[in-house]
Amino acid sequence: MDLKNTLKEALAFEQKGHDIYKATAKKTSNSVVKATFNYLAEEELKHKDAIKGYIEKEKIDISNSGNKKEDTEKFFTTTVNEFKEKTRLSSDDLKAHETALELEKSSYNFYKELHKKSDTQELKKFFKFLMEQENTHYELIQKAYWYVKDPTGFYAEEEQWFIEGG
Fold this sequence. Notes:
- The protein has helices at residues 3-27, 31-57, 69-82, 91-117, 121-149, 151-158.
- The chain is mainly α.
- α3 packs parallel to α5 and α5 crosses α6.
- It has a single domain (3-58, 67-82, 89-157), classed as Ferritin, core subunit, four-helix bundle (Ferritin).
C-alpha cells in the first residue's frame, strides 16, 4: 500500500464531506439541519488535520481529531431540545441527509479497507479511530434524519413512549 497517496485520498474524502456539509448548512432554513451539518463540517476538518499530521510526522495524534460518541450524542440532544418547534423541511434537506449517509458509509468502508491492509499497530489504531468517527457521524445523521422527518415519532421511540388505550 502506498501510504502517502492513500492518505492524500483520505484527505480528499474528508474535504468532500466538509464541502457538502457546509453547503447544506448554508442552504437550509431548518435549524436542526443547519446545526447538524455545521457540526459535521467541523468534524471533517478535525479529521483532515489528523491525517495531515500523520503525513507530515508519520505519527498519530488523535487527541483533537474528532468528538467522542458521547459528545456527538450530547450535541444532538442539545440541538433538538433547542429547536423543538416544527421547522420547515425541504426535499433538499432530506436528500442531503441521504447523501451524507452514503458519504459516511463510503468513508467508513474506505478506512476499514485501510485498516485491513495496515502493517503496523499504529496505523491500525489510526484507521480504527477514523472508522469509529465515521460510524458515529452516520448514527448522528440517521437520528437527525429521523427527527426532522417525524419529530413526534422520534420522541416516541427515543423515550420509549407507549399508548394506553381503553
